[in-house]
Amino acid sequence: MAQPVVEPFRTTDTLGKLHYREALSIRTPQSLALPESEDDPAVRQKHRPFILSNTAEEDWVSDLELTTALKMAENNLKNTNQRLKVLVLYGSLRQRSYSRLVAFEACRILFRLGCDVRVFDPEGLPVKNDVDHGHPKVQELRGLSQWSDGHIWVSPEQHGNLVSIPSPTPLNPTKHHFHLY
Q1: How many domains does one find in the chain?
Q2: 20 to 30 A from 163, CA-CA: which of 58, 78, 102, 132?
Q3: Which tens digits make up the pLDDT trace of 120-160?
Q4: What's the rounded Cα separation, in Å, for the pair 11 and 139?
């Protein structure tokens, strides 16, 4: 688990000026991300394309104010000793897709909060039909859906219309689904 850092307690006066009180320090972890040493290399290679190779100092996600969320996630991780497993799906196959970029940014935030995040790459997934149930990409998607505790779906929008909408029948009705449009 990440080492906590001491952040000074911040208050603002009526004019909005920021004041720091060193005496009231709050200990918060900067990241609960799964360290590379504890991660499965095959999973990291295939399902974690959102992990950047540069240092955290250059990453805008490390600058986010997530103190409360990090505390909640850290308490949950201590109490359950399990990471929340999140599957992220995006609906565009374009090489430089905005929905893919949004999906990766959401993954990076969730990963920092200690979630076990995996991304499904839809490249090669056949169009829904009654014949391709055994297709490798269909099996991969089913396996990831069964593995996960919840899903985040990111779908592209074009001229105010959704161009990719999840099937009316969810992959698994017991999962929690969040749609980012």
Answers
A1: 1
A2: 132
A3: 998 888 887 888 888 999 999 999 999 999 999 888 766 55
A4: 52
- Domain ranges, residue 137: 30-179
What are the angstrom distances between the C-alpha of 63 and each of 31, 59, 131? 11, 7, 47
| Assigned domain for 5 exists | no
| The Cα angle at residue 105 between residues 101 and 106, in degrees rounded to 5 | 115
Q: Residue 15: inside a domain, yes or no?
A: no
Residue 52 to residue 67: CA distance in whole angstroms: 22
Q: CB atoms < 10 A from the CB of 122, how many?
A: 15
Q: Residue 155 domain-assigned?
A: yes
| Residue 21 domain-assigned (yes or no) | no
Per-residue pLDDT reduced to its tens digit, 63-85: 788 888 888 888 888 999 999 99
* Residue linked to tokens 């929690």: 176
What are the phi and psi torsion angles at 88 (to 5°)? -115, 130
Provide the whole-model pTM.
Answer: 0.66
